Every structure is written in structure tokens, then in C-alpha cells.
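Model: You mentioned two targets. I'll fold them one after the other.
Researcher: Yes, keep them separate.
Model: Target one:
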Amino acid sequence: MQPQSIDMKHKVLFFLYLTVLILPNIILCVTETMPWYGKATLLLLPLSVYWTVMCLSHRPSKAYWCMFPVLFLGAFNIVLSYLFGKGVIAVDMWLNVATSSPNEAGEMLAQLYPSVIAVVIIYVPTLAYAAYDIWSKGRLDHVFVKRQRMVACALAAAALPLTGATMATGKWSLLDDLFPVNVCYNLKLAVERQATSLKYLENSRDFRFDATCMDADSVPQVLVLVIGETSRAANWQILGYDRDTNPELSKTDGIIAFRDCLSQSNATHKSVPILLSPATAEDFKVLFHSKGLLAAFREAGYHTAFISNEPRNHSFNDHLGEQADTTIFLRDSMSGDPKDSLMLPYVSELLAGKANRHQLIVLHTYGSHSTYSDRYEDYQSYFHPDNVVHATASCREVLINAYDNTIRLTDHFLASVIRMLEQSGRPSALVYTSDHGEDIYDDERGLYLHASPWPSYYQLHTPLIFWFSSGYRDLYGQRTGLVAKRRNDPVQSDCIFPTMLTLGGIGTKVCQDSLSLASKAYRIKQQRHYLTDHNLSVTLDKCLEPQDFVQFRKHNMRPY
């Protein structure tokens, strides 16, 4: 190859490398809602930095490989842009990467293969050729490098004052809006949160609820809390859905279904602690030094059990579950993908073995977690076709069929637990809710899955179901009457912890009676709150979009 053509090749490589580096910023300019000057800063400032780095050496391929961390973040962010439609790698997503099992990660990647393929096509060939070019000692001529350094200086001269002016408006910040700075900041926050989780046992060691049970020991009662996974209220027949997803619960006497319940988080590692501890979106930090529901009931003399079909991930979920007298993670002793029904024999054994004591049993199911068709056996398939090959908007009918099949399985699971409680003959209560919901290409936004940087109606609207035995209603008619009376109230997932305490007749020093649906002190909130990726409490109007409020109106829900 002639020297002139070699030199031209490296000039082309120089601009190709710059294009790949700035590509995530170009995509974010399309997906993000920000003023034009914010988008100009989002492009110009990083581009000036990349241009400068590429000019530091006469060997552009070497500089490109030195930018590998930025390239990795860019590739990751492009995949998430495909998944969520907007946003950058959030704190919760970093934590999901750290806490997800290999099976969960594999399931998600299998559903995102179009974006993964696109990223491979963009990044792998350029990195591979850059490695070859480094080996062959490719260089740029001095005149070209000098000229590009002048361009880099000009870009920086324009970018810096623009950045200052943009930040001065108060509508844009480096830590929140500038890629890749915001992603690195989110990674730092994720590391700090993981460290907080690891210190939890030490920080909460001496915490006590000073809990006492005011209900008579002579009548041993059973409370069961079932925590669903990724179950959205929009697909529950008993909440107005037009498909037969609740064939058993719809025929079960005594069901009380709340139609307007919202989760305070769309990520499991935060939504479950809100269910199992005094933490709320408005005061989430209380979680870091206090114990949870199982510890409170245990203090009050209940025998407590936590049975989970979720993978262990060393998060607060594990810590709160391990505060029970009996803790069982199915996946500790079972290989493959255990079905939720495998928890039922443990429930039966607990009911028989502790019949002379008050009991609290918490069941953490795997429910409707993607891939949906893996949650049930082939013979349990009801809606067809349901063989999910890949997740795209064009395959929504198949996805919905498989998802609705998981709701039917949850319906059967809950009905099975209720039958066990009835057969025990003891005063008993069951409460079911889900950690969060799920997007399944429901509108023009094309959103899919959950744990996105910002939530949607489908991720937040969750089922909340109560069932009380006749014996429990006879003993505690005031509690059950209050719950039934409030079935149309706008509530959130922070009601579960205090409501369970009231249903168990437990008094503690942690007073949240205004959130308890079974307490006379209960009050409807003026505003409902969501816990953001940065653990900030915001009202619904600050985190939802117009399409979401259309659904609120459609389902006669309070939009605040």
C-alpha cells in the first residue's frame, strides 16, 4: 500500500473512532428531554475531550484503545437505550448487574439480542482493527495531528463557556446530564449503596422494635404475606382485566382487592425493603439501621418464616429475610429454575408444626419475572401462542399471552395457600402484593421490562389483595372491616409493613399507624411518592409522563 493511501486510511480511522465515541451522546440527544443548549453541551463538551485525547498521540488506534472504559460504557448505554427508550446507566441498573444471578442476566440478554448485535457490530470490529493497527505501528503525519489539535482547542473554547451558561440555568448538571460523567457518578453511588448493604448487619445489630403482641395467645393465628415479582395490576382479572387470569381468586369468598395501589419503587432491591421494613420513599434511609417485619413479629412472640424463590444476592432483601426463625431460599438446595409451587410443601409443614403458636409466614415468589414462559410448565399454558423467542413490539401478543399465564399461576398459588389456611382451622389472614410491575410494549413509547431510570404506570400499578378467614373476621372484625372500607383508597406499598403489624395485633416503638389500612389512625396521603434512582422522594407528576396519566384516568385512579 502506498504511503499516501496509508496516511488517508489513518485519517479515516481518526474520524471513525471519534464517531463511535460520540455515538451514545448523539442517541441521548434524541431520547432525552432537555433544552437545546443542554443537548448542545451534551455533544460539544465530550467531543472536545475525545478530540483532544485522540490528538495526544500520532497513533490514533492506541488512543482509541486507551478510551476503552468510555467505549464499554457507551456500548452498555446503547443497549439500555434500546431497552428503556431513554436515560443512562442508572444506579439501580448498576446494582442489578451486581445482584442479578447468571440466569437472570442471561434471560435479559436473550431478550435484547437486536441491540446486543448492533453494539457488537459497532464496537468489536473497530477495536479489533485498532489492535491490528497498533501491532502494525500505524501513525498519523505531524501536520494532520497539529491541525486536529487546533480543532480540539477550538471545540474546547466553545464548549467550556457553553457548559457554564447551561449549568447556570439550573436545568442541567454535569452529574445528572453529561454522558459519561453521569454514568460514572451513578457507578460511584452504586458502590456506596452496596457498601451500605454489606454494613447492614453491623449497623442494625442493636436495633429493637420493643414489639409486643396484644392478641390472645390462646387463639394461635396465622398471617401470610406473599410478595409477588413483576406482577402488574393491569393484567389481573379481579381488578378489571378482560381476560381470565384469576379463575380461582375470582370465585374465592372474602377477597378484598385494592384497585389503586402503587409501588414506591420499580426495582426489587428497593421495593421489597419498603414492603418488609419501616422504610418509605419519603424516609428510605431508615432502612440502613433498622430491622424489618420478621424481626418485629419475632420479638412479639410469633414464630416467623421466610421462604424465597428469588436468588440470593447479598442485598437488603436477603438480610431482612434472614431475620426470621426459619429462612429458606429454594435455590440454595435446588438447581435449575424452581417453580413457585415448590414453596407450598414448606407452608404445609410450617402450619402443621407450629399450630400452637402465632405465625407469620412471608413467601417471596418469582412470579412473573421475565422470561415469562420459564415461570410455568408447558401443561400450565392457557393463553396461546406463548413461546417467546425474542422481545420486540411486533411480538407483543405472544409476550402478553406468556405474561398472563404467569398471572394465572400466581392466582393458583394464592388459592392454594388460602385452602391450606382454611384447612388449618386457625384464624388467618393472607396479604398479597407485588414488588413492582412491568412494561410490555404497551404504548407508542415502546417500553419493556422494569427498573428503568424513570417509571411508568405499568411499572408502578400493582395488585394488593387481602383475604381473611371466617375465624379471623369473627375475632378482629374491626380490622377487617377497616381494610374492606378502604379498598378504593389510593394507597402505596409503604402501607404493607404497618398494616401487617396491625393485623398481627403488634405494637412497636415505630409508629406508622397513619399508613396502616387496618388502623383507625389511617389517613389518606395528600400526595403519593416515588423513590428515584438517586433515592430521592418525588411526587408522581415529577416522574410520570402524559401517557401514564391517561391510564390513571382510564382506571379511575387518583393521579397524585
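Model: Target two:
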Amino acid sequence: MSKGSALVAILFSFFAGLILGNITGNKGGQEAEVAAAADSGEEDVKAVEEKDGPDRYKVPVTAAQPSKGPADALVTIVEVSDFQCPFCSRVEPTLKAIQKEYGDKVRIVWRNNPLPFHKDAGPAHNLAMEAFEQGGDKKFWAMHEKLFANQKALKPDNLKQYAKELGLDEAKAAEAIDKAKHGAKIKEDQKVASRLGARGTPAFFINGRFLSGAQPLPRFKEVIDDELKRAEKLIKSGVKKSKLYAALTKNGLTAAKAPEAKKQQARRRPDPKAVYKVPVGKSAQKGSDDALITIIEFSDFQCPFCSRVNPTMADIVKEYGKDVRVIFKHNPLPFHKDAMPAAQAALEARDQGKFWEYHDKLFENQKALKPADLEKYAKDVGMNVAKLKTALKDEKHKAEAEADQKLARSLGASGTPAFFINGRNLRGAQPLPAFKAVIDEELKKAKALVDKGTAKKDIYAAVTAKGSTTPQFIEAEGGKDAPARPDANKVYKIAEAKNAPFKGNAKAKVVIQEFSDFQCPFCNRVNPTIKQVMDEYGDKVKIVWRNYPLPFHKDAGPAAQAAQEVFEQGGSEKFWAFHDILFKNQRALSRADLEKYAGEVGGIDMGKFKAALDEEKHKEAVKADMDAVQKAGARIGTPSFFINGKLLQGAQPFPAFKTAIDKALTEGK
């Protein structure tokens, strides 16, 4: 070869390498999508045409995403997750169970979606992607395990320690954490997730089929088993294993499916334009009476979502100044046992002229709201502590707090936080733009009224004068026949257990089957409500316990079996005693703990108890409870209640139970 030819060859190699480097190294926006198609081998793949097949989304899977499991697995699960999200953490045991059961038939691919209100999530995701860059899939999944295991300790110093423990280059890891080195990749993941309608976490795409939330193992298995059958048929028809995922998703949806949006519209939903007449009363106020915008906030000092929205409220006050006043009303939820005393203490603070200082103290110390704490915060803000003690002892402000609760329910604002902006309802801890959209609209209307001669101090009364005092809804596009939610009148035929723990009258007119999980915090929160039901209705109701341990609660299954053994040995009386101990010690349900609690109940043959747990004697009985729900065609979480067969889901407040029970009593069993 001549020197000239050699030089040409070298230059050709250089530019070819440069072009290839640009294609594979800078995957952003549309270029990333093009690269994704190339990386997945999609160009030479023929799309699978499925007649009456499930909806599938085109979720790119490339070498740029961490994965585990073979590339030619029959089922690809793309996981969209957030290291600080508790629901993402809870579903991890389910994913491990899937890998254990299905082995090489499944691969899991990771996509980042740190939610904006999880302030430590962004740095954690940057560290995870740095681990991936430094050590590939092995280091990524090791870091993934570390981050979820330490979900409440994701500050920069913690993250740097984890990098050190896993043997990463510490300087590079620190740079990734401090400078958001992988921010562009993470944002690209978020854009893909948002475009496909996976805005919450966790979210999953199983061979392109969307599954939202921390679903139980049976729900995953339902989709995976169906996909395995489809995959095996396709392979027999000639589709290569290595091209299976690309073939299935090639013609998949590239944006959230429009029919889903129609389904949302088809439901009867709260009318965002409705105006409610919400009395101000003598509630605590921040801002002037002549403000053009009045925001009435219903809140709960123990509610984490109420706490999260406080910075947004501060931003609103700062931005709109004298044009806004904030009215605070109380809606302590029944499963927040310290919320009602805190509300009463705050009302006493209002009477002493210290409401907002005390309000801030309570939210800053949301996990410490015992009587001694309430007194300490009162002292900190300069209140008369003796008067506070007397007010709490005499429940001086309880009636006012309960009146606020009743008002919230009457307006359809039973959850917290809830806001009424010049009478217009905005629910939940919404981001600042959601508030601004309503405020700006109402501000224009208010200014127009002022221009026409309405005094500023009369604006709120004027705009809410004809407001509604009951919930207002928009009917479905198809009219009133379209359901607002699953049919509340549907009666599910839940097969009754031949021998299950119960309390109340064995021949009661109303039978409430409670499907619950000893490790579920919501199940624990509803227990005071169930006691209230028993106190009010007595022999008119029968509460039957049914087991529904969720797969991501690793101690729930053994606890359920332990409770069944206590029931077998000691009947309902011993069962409910054991039930109460388990819920009281919900975070300590190890094998040793279960044995200890069984001993505390008394009268339990511990040899038989231990043998029952060793042999998983009651595993089938627990499974039978769960199967009864599936066979009836119901999909539930925990807790769920079937009141004479009608489903009431979740840790609902007492009025919801009362409405359902009263209706059942009038209808007859």
C-alpha cells in the first residue's frame, strides 16, 4: 500500500469512527429515538399484527438503559421508577419474585422518573446512572438495591458514602451527584414516560402493555403469562427470539392512547368551573379582608400531602401579595389519630393570636404531635400553655373542628388538602401552575367587578353569592348512563369462608367482610373506624376477617398464617386479641415477634404454633381468601370491605361506612 493510500485509509477510519461516535454517544430528543430503533434491530423486523390483541406502546429499549435478564427474553418489562417513591420500593419484592419464578424468560429494563416533589430523588438517580456508566448493569443494580434499602437517607453525603461502599470512582460519583451529570439522560427517560402516559411511579410496560402502580404479584402474572403464550406462538411461527420485543412493539402507540382520555372524560367528575359558597366564619386568616382572591384551605396537620403544599402556598402569597388572603379550615382525617388534638390546639392558638406561628410549628414537626409536643410548640411560639392545656382537656374547640369537617364533606372535599379559590375547588397538593391558572382567571373577574363599582371587601361575597353548597359534577359525554366509578350497587358473590374469625352478631342483618393485610398502614388506620362501626351498630353487624396479604409486604403472609393458627386454637376471641397486637406492632412482624405475640395472647400451644408456621399449615387458607375475591371478579387493594356484597374500598371515614350500612339495613340482607 502506498503512503497516500494509507493516509486515505486512516482518515476514512477516523471520520467513520467520529460519525459512529456521534450516533451512539449523543442520544437526545429525536436522535435518541432513531438510535433506539437502530439499537433494537428494528429496521429489519416485521411488525407483529395481532388481531384483537392488547394495546401496546412503543417503548424504546437500548443499551443506554440498565437491564437484567437476557436480551432475547420472551417478556421485557420496562420499569419507570423513582428511588424516593415508597410505592416503587414496595413493588421491588414483587419484581424479585417475578425474576425468581420466570428466570430467563423475563428481562427488566430501567427508566428514570424522579418526581418533582421528591427533592432527593434527582441526585439519587444521577448516582445510579453514574454507577451504570462506571460498572455497567452489575454496578447499576447493586446501587439500585442500596438506594431502595436506604430510601429515607438520600442526601448527598449519604449518596457519596454509597458510592464509596460499592467501589465507584468517588470523585466522578461526587461530580455526578453535585452537578447532575446525567440530567439529560434522566430527562429523556421522563419525556418518554410522560409521552406514553406514565406520569406517576411506579409504572410498567410489559412487552409494551401498560400496567400502572405497585400492583400485586397476581396482576403481573396475569399479563406475563398471557405474553408468554403469545411469544411462544410467535416463535413457532418464525419470529426470532432476539427480535421478539421489537416485532411486538414496532407498531405500538407512541403517545398515551386517546381512548383512555375518553374514558376519563366519560366519567362523571367534579366540575372545575363550579363555584361553591364556602363561609369564612371566624377561621384563621392570612391577608386582608379586601383581597380580590380568597383561598379557603381544608387541611390536616398530620397529612403529608398537606405539608408538601405549604411551600406552594407561601409562593402564592409572595407572588400575589395583597391580592390574596388564605383562610385555614380543619379537616383532621379519622385515621390520623393525632390530627384532631392538633387541630384543636391550633384553634386555641388562633384565639391567642398565634395561629400561623403555631401552624408552621405543627407542620415542621408533623411526626411529633402528642400532647407534650403540642404544649412544647405552644411555649416556643409564646402561647399561654396553661390555657392550651385546659382547652385540650375540655375539648373546647372540638365542635368547631368537627363543623369544619362536616362542611368539607358537604362540599365533596373529604380528602386533604382541598382548596376553594373564590369558591372554585382545587383538590390535592397541586403544583404552583395549577393554582396560578385558577387564581389568574378569578383575578380578572374580580378586577372587572371592582371596575364596575363592587367594593374590594365585598368581592368574595359577590362571586360566591350564588355558589353551590353540594358537590357539582360534569356528566359523561354519553349522558347520565355513563358510570362515574365502578358500580356502587354491584353485589359481589364473595364465597364465605367455612370458618373465619368474626365479631358481632353471627346472625346479623349486615355482614361486612374485611379483606386486610397486617403490614398495610392503611389497614391499621381504618381500625378505629371499624371499632366505631361496632360501637354504633352492635348486634346489627357482623365483621368477618379475610386475609389479603400483599406480595410486597414480606411479613404479611407469615403474620396472616400466624393469626389463622391463633384462631384455630383459640377461636375469634384469641384471634382479635392477636389481631390487635399485630397492628400495634406493625413494623415488627418477624418470626420471633410472631411467637412473642402469640405468647402474650395466652392459652396458645406454642409447639403447635411454631409447627404451623414451619409447615405453612394455613397457607392454603390464606390463598383461598384471596382467590375468593378474584373468582368474584373484584379487583381490590387493602383494606377493602364487602358490605352485604357491595364493595367499599380503602380506609374510608366513618360516614362512608354509615351510609353503606344504613342502606344495607333498609334493603335487607
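Researcher: Noted. Anything on target two?
Model: The two ends are 96 Å apart (CA to CA).
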